[in-house]
Specification:
Strand order of the largest sheet of chain A: 9-14-13-12-10-11
Oligomer: heterodimer
Number of helices of chain A: 9
Helix content of chain B: 25-40%
Strand content of chain A: 25-35%
Distance between the termini of chain B: 200 Å
Chain lengths: ~290, ~700
């Protein structure tokens, strides 16, 4: 059903979370589905409450000697887009495969003998080719320590809940407003009467609003939380350290699939991460290998 | 002596008697006075007791008793004491009464305060609810304005993209011509070479040098052919959308319009309308529906008609109509435009009503003998409908001469008597309005064809089932709804003025019923419904590219990685350049196939370098030192095959010749890559720097 959802969104172009038809969301909340589509590069989130579909793009996967040059189709997807890509692949002799994924849009992968052939397919189909999408995306992403944030005053007054992200427990622990105010560093989530706010403290009197995922990574800076092996080329890290959308998208574009979640270990795994992308990911997130 | 004693005795007796009589008289008078005073007292006490009884006091009997005792007692101090006690009791009574009254007064005052407080609270609640309703109305207006603004921005982007595509097409044509010219020249050179095949080698080289020098000293060569054809696939690439953030979006003043739309007393000035850049050309697009709004004022006895133009998908936000004089009207919401006030003349409703905009969009309302109006929960006044519905109150507009037939039709469908409004202000002569038309059942006998819309039919209902609904009654191309009509007995069903047929699946269809555009399903007798099929955006204008993560580079110095724009999986430069990144090395230069050399700039925080190139690079020159083993040329294979450039790029020449002279190995290449590198080196050799 998510293929139909992506097609619906492609026709609709832009909308709110509440606009997403419930019957097109395959189990799970609409927000989670939209977030997954954003990680896969099909759309962008606007202000956290709205979405806008991205234009079709062939995102080149990292070089793989066994596979050759390959790219996955991201962005808007309608019958017209697929027909154009199919015709281009047939005309040039590249291979196009549709890999079904439960509760996700199918992964449309184009495989060619060389990057030049891949570029020819993209040109014939009229779809832009993004060379080395994952690496280029990471290269244009700020490091977590430089992640944009908005300085603000410390919350005061009546609050309902205060939580602190514990890097040792890799989760949220109960805290108090006084503790948050007195802390020199840390990442806090504070529930006020009408909303939640995420505050990153970089000094006793310095705090700022920041993206929730970036804040957790900032709190976990230099933590040895990432594991990767050259054989498997699988990068896994705690699910609580799920990176911001842009970074997650870059990691997902190494295969075109979302990360796997292991409930037992509470870790997520991104597959086929080459060494250069691993190094860049560690540098940007500030995490270290175990 | 005895006589004197007797006389004295008699006189004494008389005196005693007189004294006794006087005393008794006094006594009697005193008693009388006492009686009178007692009576008066009793009377007063009676009054007091009555008052006390009225106040529900129990001392009345006591007072009476006391007064009786007082009356019966001789005029002594006891009587006076009793009087004093009664006075005291009366005073106490009076005081108690006064206290009671005071207490009652206090209670009444408190009650009054409570009532006032309750009234104030109710008033506050009313005001609060009114403010809340006003706020919701303003919020809805703001949302609709934002949607309209977004649509306007998208349209302007598409216009810019079309202009850019046209410019690129012109460049492509120019480059094609240039290529043809060069082909001819190449043929000419080939002939020369054949002729010179017997010349000495030195002479040949001298000729080549002369030719290259002559190429360099001709500055007025046309540049059209030099610009490499942009074969980077263009997918309706538009200029970036201005960053939309709550901080930078200018606040527009709230516009409070009546729900009917703008009313204009005079035609608007000539203002150009926005051309719809999406969808098929206006001339080929189906005409949209034009409705009417009927406003009746029973007290003032006025009637007014205005035209309501529907706004299907792809219609512009603003149109300039040609209706005698030009009318510029703006969109009211996503479904319709503002009302268009046209003078209600005798001919306005006689025939078909057709309207067209200056840019080719059309609206039509078919001719009919009777115009039927009904209320709409989303619209004020009465809106025209295609047919009457059972149990719904309608108003009819017809010629006066048709009133009798209309009344007869009303009787045949079980409608109550109609109320005629014939000479109201606003209704032209020869026309009338009949209100209160409420059909109850299908017509018996059947109505003539031109009055069949008055027949509500047998409760027919049009159902649009399935399909991929983008919006209410708007469906994606390739996923049309099934048109189900039940019960469809003795009814004429058309879709877009074509007779519909029942398919095997039970849905009604006509050829083209699922084609992009607006369609109207008309059941006579019965209701009508419209739906729209939206064309695949891939075939029209595609999707916008915009800088979706502009906030990531806030307060950052302008560098390639901060200036790069990210949208989905695509990364571009601000002017559409190709963004290229690689792990940092001392030398990193992206090279085009025939020109273009862009050094990658090093990020200081992570070990990566990023650069922009106008066209996709073909090679990446990477080196850590000057030795042959410390560098390599990586074949990227991204450059378009038809890239053609005669432009002399000294930086490119220098980089290529440096790599060639060092004989850096070519990596990641195939036969195509090796051939490309060979030709690149040859070209660079030819286009060496001019001698100083």
């Amino acid at each position: 059903m998510t293929d139909i959802l992506l097609e619906w969104m492609s026709f609709r172009r832009v909308g709110r979370m509440s606009d997403v038809p419930a019957d097109l969301v395959d189990g799970g909340a609409a927000r989670r589905t939209v977030d997954n589509l954003a990680v896969l590069g099909h759309l962008e989130l606007l202000n956290g409450t709205s979405w806008k579909v991205a234009p079709p793009t062939l995102a080149e996967l990292p070089t793989n000697a066994a596979r050759g040059a390959a790219a996955v189709l991201c962005g808007a997807r309608t019958p017209g887009v697929l027909a154009s890509l199919t015709a281009a692949c047939q005309g040039i002799g590249a291979q196009m495969a549709s890999l079904n994924v439960p509760s996700r849009p199918a992964v449309i992968r184009v495989t060619a003998t060389s990057s030049a052939e891949l570029a020819s397919v993209a040109s014939a189909a009229g779809i832009p080719l993004q060379h080395d999408a994952a690496f280029t995306l990471l290269a244009c992403t700020p490091a977590i320590r430089d992640w944009p944030r908005t300085p603000c005053a410390m919350v005061d007054g009546r609050v309902k809940t205060v939580r602190r992200f514990s890097r040792s427990r890799m989760g949220w622990v109960e805290s108090t407003l006084a503790e948050a105010a007195a802390a020199k560093t840390g990442f806090f989530r504070i529930k006020r009467d009408w909303d939640w706010v995420s505050l990153l403290k970089t000094g006793v009197s310095e705090c700022a609003y920041i993206d929730d995922r970036a804040g957790r990574l900032a709190a976990a800076a230099k933590l040895k939380a990432v594991s990767w092996t050259a054989n498997s080329r699988t990068l896994d890290l705690p699910s609580q350290l799920f990176p911001p959308v842009v970074i997650a998208r870059a990691l997902a574009l190494c295969t075109g699939f979302l990360p796997r979640y292991e409930a037992e270990s509470r870790r997520i795994s991104f597959g086929e991460i080459p060494p250069e992308i691993l190094r860049l990911t560690l540098a940007i997130t500030g995490l270290k290998l175990t | 002596m005895e006589m004197l004693v007797v006389i004295g005795g008699i006189g004494l007796a008389l005196a005693s008697a007189i004294i006794v009589v006087a005393l008794r008289g006094r006594q009697h008078r005193a008693q009388d006075k006492r009686h009178v005073s007692a009576e008066r007292r009793a009377h007063r006490e009676d009054e007091a007791s009555r008052r006390a009884e009225e106040a529900g006091l129990a001392t009345t009997s006591e007072t009476h008793r006391h007064s009786d005792e007082t009356r019966s007692q001789p005029a002594t101090q006891d009587m006076r004491r009793g009087v004093a006690e009664s006075r005291l009791a009366a005073a106490r009574e009076a005081q108690r009464i006064a206290e009671e009254e005071e207490h009652l007064a206090v209670e009444r005052e408190a009650q009054r305060h409570r009532d006032e407080a309750r009234q104030r609270a109710e008033e506050d609640a009313r005001l609060a609810s009114a403010r809340e309703a006003q706020r919701e109305i303003e919020e809805a207006l703001r949302r609709s304005e934002e949607e309209a603004r977004l649509a306007t921005e998208q349209k302007s982007q598409r216009q810019r993209e079309q202009a850019r595509q046209k410019a690129e097409e012109d460049e492509r044509l120019a480059s094609t011509h240039e290529a043809q010219r060069e082909t001819k020249e190449a043929h000419g050179r080939t002939d020369e070479e054949v002729c010179r095949a017997t010349e000495p080698e030195e002479q040949r080289q001298a000729d080549e040098e002369n030719r290259s020098v002559s190429e360099e000293v001709w500055p007025d060569k046309p540049d059209d052919g030099d610009r490499e054809a942009d074969t980077a696939p263009v997918i309706e690439r538009t200029s970036k959308l201005p960053t939309s953030s709550a901080k930078t979006r200018p606040r527009q003043p709230a516009v409070h319009r009546d729900r009917r739309g703008n009313r204009r007393a005079s035609p608007a000035g000539a203002a150009s309308s926005e051309v719809a850049s999406t969808g098929p050309a206006p001339a080929t697009r189906a005409a949209a529906e034009a409705k009417l709004r009927l406003a009746l004022h029973p007290i003032r006895r006025t009637a007014r008609i205005s035209v309501v133009l529907t706004r299907p998908e792809g219609f512009p936000e603003r149109v300039t109509l040609q209706a005698g004089v030009e009318h510029a009207i703006e969109t009211y919401d996503t479904q319709r435009y503002d009302d268009l006030d046209l003078p209600w003349t005798g001919e306005l409703l006689d025939g078909e009503l057709r309207l067209a905009s200056t840019d080719g969009f059309r609206w039509v309302r078919s001719a009919r003998r009777v115009h039927i109006f009904a209320t709409d929960p989303n619209e004020p006044d009465l809106i025209s409908v295609g047919a009457a519905r059972p149990g719904v109150v309608h108003a009819l507009v017809c010629r006066s001469g048709d009133a009798a037939d209309v009344r007869s039709a009303a009787a045949s469908v079980g409608s109550p008597d109609l109320q005629a409004h014939e000479h109201w202000q606003g209704i032209p002569d020869g026309w009338m309005v009949l209100s209160g038309y409420t059909p109850a059942h299908t017509a018996e006998p059947p109505l003539p064809n031109d009055l069949r819309p008055l027949d509500p039919g047998a409760g027919l209902e049009i159902v649009l089932e399935g399909g991929l609904a983008i919006r209410p009654r708007v469906y994606a191309e390739g996923h049309p709804p099934r048109i189900l009509i039940s019960p469809a007995r003795n009814a004429s069903i058309t879709i877009g003025d074509q007779p519909a047929t029942l398919s095997a699946s039970g849905a009604w269809e006509v050829p083209g019923w699922d084609a992009p555009g607006q369609h109207i399903v008309d059941v006579v007798p019965g209701p009508s419904a419209s739906y729209e099929i939206v064309a695949d955006p891939w075939a029209i204008a595609g999707w916008d590219f915009w800088n979706a993560h502009s906030s990531r580079s806030e307060n950052q110095p302008a560098r390639p990685w901060t200036r790069a724009e990210i949208c989905g999986a695509q990364i571009r430069g601000p002017a559409g350049e190709t963004v290229f990144a690689a792990e940092t090395q001392p030398t990193l230069i992206a090279l085009g196939l025939k020109s273009g050399a862009a050094p990658l700039q090093r990020r200081g925080d992570v070990s990566v370098s990023v650069g922009f190139m106008a066209e996709a690079p073909a090679f990446l020159l990477a080196a850590t030192g000057q030795r042959r083993t410390q560098g390599q040329v990586i074949w990227l294979g991204l450059a378009p095959a038809s890239q053609d450039s005669r432009r002399l790029d000294p930086d490119w020449v220098l980089a290529v010749r440096s790599a060639a002279s060092r004989r850096l190995p070519l990596q990641c290449s195939d036969a195509v890559g090796e051939d490309a590198w060979r030709k690149t080196k040859e070209r660079a050799r030819r286009l060496k720097r001019p001698r100083s």
